[in-house]
Amino acid sequence: IRCCCCCRCRDVERQAACLQTEQPCVPVSQHIPSGMWFIRDACGIVCGVITWMLVFYAEFVVLFVMLLPSKNLTYSLVNGTVFNTLAFLALASHFRAMCTDPGAVPTGNATKEYIESLQLKPGQVVYKCPKCCSIKPDRAHHCSVCKRCIRKMDHHCPWVNNCVGENNQKFFVLFTMYIALISLHSLVMVVFHFLYCFEDDWTKCSSFSPPATVILLILLCFEALLFLIFTSVMFGTQVHSICTDETGIEQLKKEERRWGKKTKWMNTKAVFGHPFSIFWFVPLTQPGKAHGKAESYQYVV
């Protein structure tokens, strides 16, 4: 589910003396965020809890319905190790995407005094967000759920209860990829288990009764198929956005491109870090931003 919550208008300040607001902006020091980033949105919290519950349900069915009752120890060990590893990486990616600051712009700094301190040259302009009273960097958009301007905001995703932006896009991409992989893996195992039970006695292929086993497997099959399609589409759109260096909001609003064009490989390194390593696929590490990171504030001439 993609909810693009962005500001539809921008106030342009051509000179520091032209800055006027209906209510005075609170100084920046009073808006410094805490170390833990978490959005207190009821819908997002519910969606996040549902996500973890669905993964735990798949874990329960895979282990206690299909793998533990299996007579093939090698089959159970290999598939159990693969599934649990992917499930751990998926949940870790979800947690990092949810609790990482996506690139929030400091609020309350669009004051007359602060803009005067920037010493803008003639012809330079800065954008001011009228909702959070902040100087808005180029390519930043305001999210009505987070109540902040987010740098390179792609969209607000209720499933991770956070915006997908400059600092957490890697974790969101890994989350969609690992959910798609465990969905595919569990779907394949369900098919093999059904075939195995049809050839053997149903009472011997599961520790549950045959009706309960069928219901649990059908529910898992439906869940896996649904989320395989959903996360695969989301993963594909994210990869396309990274390669083209154009966020979902920019594509939706068809904004004029004012930033330099880079190669697909450079765009990928800007999201996942530089240089390429196995840590690209590990959600426990924050990607380095030595290459491709935008400046805190970009002024348009």
Q: In summary, what is this structure?
A:
This protein has 301 residues and is mainly alpha-helical. The protein has seven helices and seven strands, in the order E-H-H-H-E-E-E-E-E-E-H-H-H-H. The relative contact order is 0.15.
In words, what does this structure look like?
Its main location: membrane. Belongs to the DHHC palmitoyltransferase family. It comes from Oncorhynchus mykiss. Keywords: Acyltransferase, Membrane, Transferase, Transmembrane, Transmembrane helix. It catalyses: L-cysteinyl-[protein] + hexadecanoyl-CoA = S-hexadecanoyl-L-cysteinyl-[protein] + CoA. It contains 7 helices and 7 strands. The chain is 47% helix and 8% strand. Helix 1 packs across helix 5 and helix 4 (169-199) runs antiparallel to helix 5 (210-244). By secondary structure, it is mainly alpha-helical. A 3-stranded antiparallel sheet has the order 1-2-3, with no helix packed on it. It is elongated, with a radius of gyration of 24 Å. The protein has helices at 42-67, 73-99, 112-117, 169-199, 210-244, 248-253, 264-272; strands at 11-13, 126-129, 134-136, 140-143, 148-151, 155-157, 162-164.
Q: What does the main sheet amount to?
A: 3 strands, antiparallel
Structural class: mainly alpha
Total strands: the figure is: 7
Distinct helical segment count: 7
Helix coverage percent of residues?
A: 40-55%
Low-confidence spans: 1-24, 26-34, 290-301
Shape: elongated
User: Strand-and-helix sequence, N→C?
Assistant: EHHHEEEEEEHHHH
Average pLDDT reading:
82
